[in-house]
Amino acid sequence: MPDDLSVSYDEIGKYDPEFRFRKVKGIAAIIVTVIACGLSIFHVYTAGFGALMDMKHRSVHLTVTMLLIFLLYPARYNERTKVKHWIGDGLTALVGTAVAVFGLKEILNFHIAIGVPVFLVITGFIIYTMRVKFYRQKHIPYIDIIMALAGAVVSIYIFVNYEGIVSRSGLPTNLDLIFGLSAILLVMEATRRTIGWDLPVLAFLCLIYAYFGPYMPGFLSHRGYSVKRIIEHMYLGTEGIYGIPLGVVATYVFHFVLFGIFVAKTGLGQLFIDIAMALAGRSKGGPAKVAIISSGLLGSINGSSIANTVTTGSFTIPLMKRMGYSSRFAGAVEATASTGGQITPPIMGAAAFIMSEMIGMPYIKIAAAAAIPALLHYLGIGTMVHLQAAKEGLKGIPKEDLPDIKRCLIDRGHLLIPLVAVIYLLITGRSPFLAAFWGITSSILVSYLRKETRLSLREIIEALEWGTRSSLSITAACACVGFIVGTATLTGLGLSFASMTVNLAKSTAGFFAHLDFFNLGFINFGNLFFTLLYTMAACTILGSGLPTTATYIILSMIAAPALRDFNIPLLVSHMFVLYYGVLADVTPPVALAAYAGAGLAGSNPFRTGFTAFKLALAEAIVPFAFVYTPMFLLLGFEWKMGIIHILSVALGIVALGAGAVGYLSGRLAVWERVLMITSTILLIVPSLLIKGIGAVLFFLLVFYQKIINTLRNNNRF
After folding, report:
1. 283, 388, 407, 464 — which has fewest CB within 10 A?
2. Is the dihedral of CA 613, 617, 622, 624 positive or negative?
3. Which of 527, 632, 520 has its CA nearest to residue 575?
4. How far apart are CA 377 and CA 650, in angstroms?
């Protein structure tokens, strides 16, 4: 990872809107740095010495975040003059104005005659702010300063008036509701600026659903709620903006993002790359294996698959191309390996902390449960990379070009101490809050053990500033997700979606049951299978283009309840939806991580996305394995049966890799590839008999391949 973090994030910003910051200069840059560092210091202090009351702590965090978002993120990033862009800006203005005017009319009960001129004025103002070329200005436009102050005011209002809000719970004043309406609109705009349109549109549709409940069809129908009730629920309670998602960001996620920035500043990222080079560089297809190991290590403490792709990919992708891999394959390997970091302990893209709050399970148990599936994911990538290298005759990196692992550990091994300390504190039952505090503190202290890694005051300030900057998009996303969570708790949206999914699965299973000529009880098996299949599809679609934390929260509220009817443990159902939400980063047509890898590799983004998805096939099948066999997540683990199940699925993943690549000890014919994939399916089925058949089929194919290749080498075939 480059020592100059600003250069790194500029590169990331080409592919990810979360890091497209306005380049502020002069006094504006000083103000931004002071505010950002102040928030980081506030969180470090509260992590070590205790946080404020939940609502107050969250409101302070959101206040500073909203202030910085409107100062650092422009309304748009380039000039848009086409008719479709004018139409898009006009529609945005109309919707925003309509919500504002309708909300104010409901709150203040004024006549429609007053609403018309207000509507026209606000619409014109919004269009003006979107069409003026603010993105070209070197300094922060006045309108963004106004919005920054407004965003801060609507959040600090909760902090200042907390006691009054609590005392009049259920009886909000008009001022409470006006501030709440403003907060809803500003949070959506902040989210649009930081991560794009997808999440704000989904949140807006949820609010519409909460209001128009009586007019919804069938199972989606509910009694509906007034504008005042919706605003109160979303703004003045802990089920909306200031709910669990924002709370987890303000108490866990922010701290581990900051911890990741500090350890990266000390040079831990480069140490990971050097260790990976030393371990795997000489082997067949070594550069790709270096990408897998280094991206997995760095991704496990990094909160963004796209950022991880760009950071490690800037080194690994050129190396893979230089050693003979195609641009498409190199970009796909890096994207898939980086995405895997979001499901790899200890940090798991911060989703583990939110999962802990959602299901009431200690974080360390979730991290431990995630270990085996993560290893299977990387086994799948490693298998395909190795077989692809063998298929193309690619060699490893010459020994003289590799770093010496002993020298690396002697020179910079002390940089691992903060990571070890964090893991130790988590394992021994300390809170993630406290573990992050000591991780950040120790990373600074440990850097002074050697002159080469010592952090200067300037680097510490940069780390504090970039820790806050890196968390802005996550905070905005989680505040906006609060509208979806609030709608789900208010209307039962999650249960409605679950009911629809289960009914659709039953209908599909019933259809196939008519084809069950041998009376194998397909309908009983099919109900769960098709529910999983439809849930998988929904998770992949809903997770497209969203950060890991926001993706998981949405899926846990909407998709996970579909699995409750089958008595699946909460941990299993939540891990299932997390896996497919993360898989969306390498699933076309969105595949943001794959497109970032394609940008670095200079390859076709769409083809790179499909290659990345192929490399991630293990991630696509492992969730089915742990649903049918929860021992993969250490639930009810028995050593004998657990090892059998793990080894059989691992063998199935190797078979899947061979079938996907079309190579084992030699090139595979089409029928051999089909049988390889068939053996994969058999090996992941829970039945020991079927697993045995799958294993026999696999080894017969291996034996056949050996014989055929021997005959070919001896010119007898």
Report:
1. 407
2. positive
3. 632
4. 10
Of 6, 20, 24, 18, the C-alpha closest to 141 is 24
Cα distances from 245 to residues 128, 238, 540, 643, 644, in angstroms, run: 33, 10, 20, 36, 38
Q: How far is Cα 164 from Cα 101, in angstroms, rounded to an integer?
A: 27
Residue 707: band (very low, low, confident or very high) from pLDDT cuts 50, 70, 90 = confident
Confidence of residue 84 (pLDDT cuts 50, 70, 90): low
Name the least confident of 298-307, 313-322, 417-426: 298-307
Q: What pLDDT score was predicted for residue 613?
A: 92
The one-letter amino acid at 579? Y
Q: Is the CB of residue 367 less than 8 Å from the CB of residue 345?
A: yes
- Look at the block and give the residue holding tokens 């893991």: 423
Whole-structure pTM value: 0.85
**Two structure tokens written together for 291:** 């990408």
Task: Specify whether the CB–CB gap between 286 and 411 falls below 8 A.
Answer: no
Residue 335 forms beta bridges with which residues? Answer: none
Of 301 and 530, which is predicted with more confidence?
A: 530
* Rounded-to-integer distance, Cα 300 and Cα 586, Å: 17
CA dist., res. 698 & res. 666, Å (int): 15
124: its two tokens = 């014109």
Tokens of 196: 């794009």
Q: Kindly tell me if the per-residue pLDDT of 715 is higher than 50.
A: yes
Helix (H, G, I), strand (E, B), or coil: what is residue 496? helix
Give the Cα separation of 351 and 585 in Å (integer): 15
Give CA–CA dist 563/528, Å, rounded: 8
* Structure token pair of residue 328: 């498409």
- Asked if 499 contacts 256 with a C-beta cutoff of 8 angstroms, the reply is no
Q: How far is CA 380 from the centre of its chain?
A: 20
Question: Residue 604's pLDDT band (boundaries 50, 70, 90)?
Answer: confident
